[in-house]
Amino acid sequence: MIVLIGGEKGGTGKTTLATNLSALRAKLSGHNNVLLIDTDPQGSSADWTYYRREAGLNGVECIQLFGKHIVSEIDTKAERYDDIIIDAGGRDSQEIRYAMTIADVMIVPVGASQYDVNTIANIDDLLNQVQPMNPDLVCYAVVNNFPNHARLTEGADAIEFLKQFENVKPLDFIIHERISINRTSKGYGINESEDLFGQADPRAEDEILKLYKAIYE
Question: pLDDT of 66-87, one tens digit each?
Answer without folding.
Answer: 887 788 898 899 889 999 999 9
